[in-house]
Prior knowledge:
Layout: E1 2-5, H1 10-22, E2 27-34, H2 37-44, H3 54-78, E3 82-89, H4 94-105, E4 109-114, H5 119-125, H6 128-135, E5 140-144, H7 146-155
Parallel strand pairs: 1-2, 1-4, 2-3, 4-5
Helix pairs in contact: 4-6
Amino acid sequence: MILIAFDGSDDAKAAITSAARLMPGQQATVLTVWQRFIDSMAHAGAGVPMMVDFDDVDESTEKLAKDRAAEGARLADDAGLKATAETAVVRTTVAEAIIDAAARAGADSIVMGSRGLTGLKSAVLGSVSHHVLQHADLPVTVVPSPEVAERRAAHR
Length: 156
């Protein structure tokens, strides 16, 4: 069984396509992670100058994550995988949420996309795929974004 990290981006869609090509017919859990509003604000270092119902924001965010995971599972099914949709809330980092979800699901591997950020952008924004690669205890397949793959192929 594979766990596919899915955020709805073209990179994540490319990861689904690659997973289906590399591991046709496999069971797959398509995972979308989401973060509670209060944690997002703490990470951003921003104050909230107005009254915000955190529960309403979290409920809406969780629903969007569930919808996104369901979209990813449909794409994975259409690509030939046997997919189910899952969500997980971020407790520490997105990467740790992915690794923890893979362990809970009993995954044999993790598949995820990568934007291919390098240099300063990567240092400032961090790299979820890099963190997963460095900390997972199972095989990880990182699929470059379609744009990055095209640039690399043209350069080669």
